[in-house]
């Protein structure tokens, strides 16, 4: 049972944090004139932090951090080969610093606002019939830039900043193999050029799943390897400016999408870090609704 690709608009969710959990775009293409709009809400929590050389069992100053977000994700097929993707998250981060810590340092336990708007274009370069299925080769290019007027230079207060105020230009190469049975595999690799002292990064993702007319599901592993130009928190060269830190991670998770009525479907997923550098050891979940046309 092949899936109706119009139903795939809600299957992909990007956790709209400083470090994305997944690739900012999916490996599926929409046909000319087709589109989708997805609204999701998510929550992440962490009390452990991946520092160098050891993981720390409490978040400095704030003890524990909870991040909640509401995100808008839209995709449209300008042609069968060219799609555009736009996304925008609103984020709230909350710490659990004690009243005495807040009073003594002039800190606050919450930061919120719109984070970064992203616009991507993806182009299907070639499609091949391979082993009872299709292999699509796709190239993508996008920019992510701050939309909200959030701060990142507040010293230790910036531990709960909602972003890094970096403008990123990212290129991706994508291979998507879809077997006629509905089983698929998608591999992505790309490089992201970043501003505001944020280290450039090599990003990749491997996703395996099943897509049929009544259900979609996948499991994924996503990685980021930042340039060695970055510094480690509390390490040599660290000045208290957190966006300049070298952030690496490996994250795993799962996504599901189920159509409910014509044009509408529900999406949900979970994800967690299994290793990292200079970031919280968080586990998150999301849910949302998608409309396809």
Task: Walk me through the structure.
This protein has a twelve-stranded antiparallel barrel with strand order 1-4-5-7-8-9-10-11-12-13-14-16. The protein has a three-stranded antiparallel beta sheet with strand order 3-2-15, with no helix packed on it. β9 and β10 form a beta hairpin. It has one helix and 16 strands. It has one helix spanning 99-105, and strands at 35-46, 49-50, 55-56, 65-77, 82-95, 110-114, 116-129, 133-146, 168-179, 183-194, 201-211, 216-226, 248-261, 264-277, 279-280, 283-292. Helix content is 2%, strand content 55%. The two termini are 21 Å apart. The protein has one domain: Porin. The chain is mostly beta strands and 293 residues long.
Tell me the layout of helices and strands.
Elements: E1 35-46, E2 49-50, E3 55-56, E4 65-77, E5 82-95, H1 99-105, E6 110-114, E7 116-129, E8 133-146, E9 168-179, E10 183-194, E11 201-211, E12 216-226, E13 248-261, E14 264-277, E15 279-280, E16 283-292
Antiparallel strand pairs: 1-4, 1-16, 2-3, 2-15, 4-5, 5-6, 5-7, 7-8, 8-9, 9-10, 10-11, 11-12, 12-13, 13-14, 14-16
